[in-house]
Amino acid sequence: MEEYASTWYDDLNDLKQDNPSLAEELVEEFGDGEWQENQLFVYESLEDYAYYELTEGWYADKHLDQKDYNGAPNPIDFIDLKALGLQLSRTWDESMHYLTRDNLIVETNYGWN
Predict the structure, then answer these.
(1) What are the backbone angles phi and psi of residue 18, rounded to the nearest 5°?
(2) Least buried of 37, 38, 73, 102, by fewest C-beta within 10 Å?
(3) Which helix (H) or strand (E) holds 99?
(4) DSSP helix/strand/coil, 59
(5) What angle do CA 67, 69, 75 make, to 5 degrees?
(6) 79-81-84-87 Cα dihedral, nearest 10 degrees
(7) How confident is the model at residue 2 (pLDDT cuts 50, 70, 90)?
(8) Do the strands 105-108 and 40-43 form a parallel or antiparallel pair, or are they unpaired?
């Protein structure tokens, strides 16, 4: 995996234009609130979320975002991203992350409440 699949949205209305069913699921789950006016990040899978965390998120200071290791293998190629993503979903801050019915990951920097 060279990149991760994700989309960020300015707010819920922006998401609603692209994915109305996901927007509806979020409103059903979290109700009305100021979170609707803030950015939402949607990752296409647990693997994509894990890749993001390894390269730009929680583990970014480990510099796993490098493409060239001077002939050495890229360690990300040997990580079970699905297993890591699943474990991250079990330990993340639920006030800012949500695993949808379709296994998309939605993240807000604002919080759901």
Answers:
(1) -90, -35
(2) 73
(3) strand 97-99
(4) coil
(5) 80
(6) -160
(7) low
(8) antiparallel
